[in-house]
UniProtKB/TrEMBL annotation:
Keyword ATP-binding (UniProt): no
Entry cofactors: FAD
Protein name as annotated: Acyl-CoA dehydrogenase, C-terminal domain
Keywords: FAD, Flavoprotein, Oxidoreductase
Length: 316
C-alpha cells in the first residue's frame, strides 16, 4: 500500500473509531454530516469540478473502511452523483445516483435522485413521493414514484460507465464488510474458549479462518486491479469491474456463512455487532447487479472478443 493510501486508511480509522453502527430510526446516521464536512463524497473528483481531489483508489478505501465499521451511510451513491454532476451539486443537501428508479438507495433522505437508466438518457429527478423499501441490512431502498420535476442530463456519462463505477464501489463496500466480518470472527475465536483452550486452536476453526482469508485476499486483489483499470485503462473498466463484483459477491456468501458458523448462536443475536457487517454482505452482493448478472455479462464480452484480445483479458 502506498504512503498516500496508508494515510487515507489512518484518517478513516480515526473518524470511524468507536462509532456506534446503529442509526436512529427514520434518520440518517449521525456520522453522515461529519463525512460530508470532511469531503468524503467528493473524493476522487477533481477540484475544478467541485470535488476535493484524490483518486478513485482513495475513495474505495473510504468506502471499504466505512463498510468495515458497520455504519450505513450513502457514501457510494452520493459520490457517484458528485462524479457525474460535479460543482452543480453545491447547493443540494443530498443527491444520490441510481441506474433505475426502483429500489433507489437512500431516496427518502435525498432532495434529488440522479437516474441513469439502461435505455434512454439520464435525468435528475426531484424526489417527490417514494414507496419505502429496505434491503436485507435494513437500509433504505425506495421506489421513486416520479411525481417530482425531472431535468434531462444529456451530458451525463452513459449507463455502462455509471454502472461500472457504482458496481466497483459496491465491490469495495463488500470488501470492507468482509474485512469487518473477518476481524470480528478472529477476535471472537481468539478470546472464546472450549475444552480449556481458545477456539482458534481447533483445527476445524483454523481451517475455516484460513478459507475466509483466501476469499478476502482474492477480493482485495480483484478490487485493486479494477481500480487500476478504471484509472489507467477506462475502456476496459467494465470487464475488470465484472471480475471484482463476481469475486466480491462469492466472497460475501462464504465469509458471512463462516463468520456465523464460528460465532455460533451468539452471532445471530441483535445485540452482537456481527450482524452489522454480515447483513450488509448478504444485501450488497445482489445490488448493482447480481453475481449471475455480471457472470453472464462477462461471458458475453468474452464471446465477442477475438482470440488475442480474449487471451490478454484473461491473463492480465
Amino acid at each position: 500500500m502506498s504512503t498516500e493510501n496508508s494515510l487515507i486508511t489512518e484518517v478513516a480509522a480515526d473518524v470511524l473509531s468507536g462509532v456506534d453502527p446503529q442509526a436512529p430510526a427514520g434518520a440518517l446516521h449521525p456520522l453522515w454530516p461529519t463525512l460530508v464536512e470532511l469531503g468524503w463524497p467528493q473524493v476522487g473528483v477533481d477540484e475544478a469540478r467541485g470535488g476535493v481531489g484524490g483518486t478513485l483508489r482513495d475513495l474505495t478505501e473510504l468506502v471499504a473502511a466505512t463498510a468495515a465499521s458497520g455504519v450505513s451511510v450513502p457514501l457510494a451513491e452520493a459520490s457517484v452523483a458528485r462524479w457525474i454532476l460535479g460543482a452543480e451539486l453545491e447547493s443540494a443537501p443530498l443527491v444520490v445516483a441510481a441506474t433505475s428508479p426502483d429500489a433507489v438507495p437512500w431516496a427518502r433522505f435525498a432532495s434529488h435522485v440522479l437516474v441513469c437508466p439502461e435505455r434512454g438518457s439520464a435525468h435528475l429527478v426531484e424526489r417527490g413521493e417514494v414507496e419505502p423499501g429496505e434491503n436485507l441490512a435494513g437500509e433504505p431502498r425506495d421506489a421513486l414514484l416520479l411525481t417530482g420535476t425531472t431535468t434531462p442530463l444529456p451530458d451525463a456519462p452513459p449507463h455502462e460507465d455509471v454502472l461500472a463505477r457504482s458496481a466497483l464501489l459496491n465491490a469495495a463496500a463488500l470488501l470492507g464488510a468482509a474485512r469487518g466480518a473477518n476481524e470480528r470472527t478472529r477476535e471472537h475465536v481468539a478470546q472464546r474458549e472450549q475444552f480449556g483452550r481458545p477456539l482458534i486452536a481447533l483445527k476445524a476453526v483454523a481451517n475455516a479462518l484460513a478459507e475466509m482469508r483466501v476469499h478476502l485476499e482474492a477480493t482485495e486483489t480483484a478490487v485493486a486491479r479494477a481500480v487500476r483499470v478504471h484509472e489507467q485503462e477506462p475502456e476496459r473498466a467494465l470487464v475488470a469491474t465484472a471480475a471484482a463484483k463476481i469475486t466480491a459477491a462469492r466472497a460475501a456468501t462464504s465469509i458471512a456463512r463462516s463468520a456465523h458458523q464460528l460465532h455460533g448462536a451468539m452471532g445471530v443475536t441483535r445485540e452482537h455487532p456481527l450482524h452489522h457487517v454480515t447483513r450488509k454482505l448478504w444485501a450488497w452482493r445482489d445490488e448493482c447487479g447480481t453475481e449471475r448478472n455480471w457472470s453472464v455479462r462477462l461471458g458475453r464480452i468474452a464471446l465477442g472478443a477475438d482470440e488475442p484480445e480474449l487471451w490478454e483479458r484473461t491473463t492480465a
